[in-house]
Amino acid sequence: MTADQIRSLQPALAALLETFRPYLGRASNFAHLLAYVLGLTADLKRKSVEPIALAAGAAVRTLQEFLSFLDWDHEAANDHLQRQVMDRHGCARAIGVLDACGHAKQGKMTPGVSRQWCGESGKIDNCVVGQHLLYTDNHPTNPFNCVLSSDLFLPKAWDEDAERRKRAHIPEEIVHSPKWRMALDQVKPAIANGVRFWFLTFDEDYGKVPQFWFDLDAMGQQAIGEVPANFHVFAKRPACRSQQKAHRAKRVDNLCRFSPLFREQPWQRVTVREATRSPIVWEIKTARVHLSDTVETPSRPTDRQYALILARHVDTGEIKYFVSNAAASVPLSDLLTAAFARWHIELWFERAKQEAGLGAFEVRTYRSLLRHWFCSRLAMYFLAEQTQRLRGEKSADHVGAGGGGGQRAGLDDVETYLALTG
User: Fold this and answer.
1) Of 5, 165, 215, 332, which one has the fewest beta carbons inside 10 Å?
2) Distance of CA 62 to CAs 31, 169, 228, 311, 334, Å?
3) What is the pLDDT of residues 141-161, one digit of tens each?
4) How many whole angstroms separate alpha carbon 117 and alpha carbon 412?
């Protein structure tokens, strides 16, 4: 980065945080937010409250109280973040990505901690899981990504432990809810705040639930997501409702293998480009099907049809199944563009843990956990804006400006600057 670019970062951060002042209550809370966001982006070995406070020369207890008890409205501040993202970065082909992220934790005091699947460790582990909604413009070379919502997934065991809930200050209305329902509860307020998604995309944990699709339909939200091999659909509406095998819904893997809908059509080759890896070639087949209205048996076919896409990786033979509620007139290329955009949130999780302390929380209350996640997302939003701006400022004759080689101003540059000035 040039000296001018470095000097430009400090007023940008101050200007960004200034827009949140109406939601921070007392004036001192603004200073606390500034200190915490700077700490999350600084080059600290640990990015929990204590090391951030010590690096900022602030009282540890003061920052703890800023997260836990001081009166400021993090929910209204998050609404403002969503509106600002749409105002500054809204685009016609923006994609919303839904996903959960696990953070391995020791002990039993962190809100929501339980033995459950943890993507961070790749196994059943003692961890905290957050449900997240990411907004991306899906730009091929300089994408803007921002997580709009983060909520705690509360395991069922916490519903039944009143004393544990009390110690963690978990509100009565916060109870166990499946991730797909939490996801809908994140999308609806985002839309109310003016956010518009060309598509939503997600993995099979969401796509496997028929009611999730029907709720998206009711919202008028276009989506495409993975479904598991045992997801059931109807190739056509049966003549009658019966338990006979010929009239029952079929697993998508069997349908794609044996039905004339798929067996008699040729493979189409498409190239999927992701920023994190080399271009990948997939072979595609697609057909219109009816979803099963329930995971129970017997089930009925939906009146409307959905796209079922079979994707096979040319090199590895990996198979993926996608369902979309988009109209039949939507081009297959658009469906695949959205379907393979999930890498944005995977990369965001990786960077947010490294650059902005997403998983570095050491808190014991529900509010402090949500506020930590909000501050981490705010830090990532600032870094994303500056990265996009600095990359855009590079002239054509700058080293590496025209291609993938050479230097580029990015997250590492911004983090270095903040570490030096924080």
Assistant:
1) 332
2) 11, 19, 48, 53, 50
3) 889 999 999 999 999 999 999
4) 31
